[in-house]
Specification:
Blueprint (H helix, E strand, L loop, with lengths): L1 H35 L3 H31 L1
């Protein structure tokens, strides 16, 4: 049973690590679009969204780190 628990924690951690990478990739895309946006309001909205993605990345990374302590 304990091997299964460790395996499932590793699976969750790995999923979180992939999600962290996806948030960073999405953020890079949003920042790139913000640079090309002509409308200042669009730029502002994209930057707000970019900040949201970075916050989600930080939360994801923290949770993955917590799981690594136990694996």
């Amino acid at each position: 049973i304990s091997a299964c628990l460790v395996g499932s924690e590793m699976c969750i951690r790995d999923r979180l690590c992939r999600a962290c990478k996806l948030y960073l990739s999405a953020n890079e895309l949003v920042e790139g679009v913000a640079l090309t946006a002509n409308d200042p309001e669009d730029q502002r909205k994209l930057r707000v969204y970019s900040t949201s993605l970075l916050d989600k990345h930080a939360t994801c990374k923290k949770r993955a780190a917590e799981l690594m302590i136990f694996s």
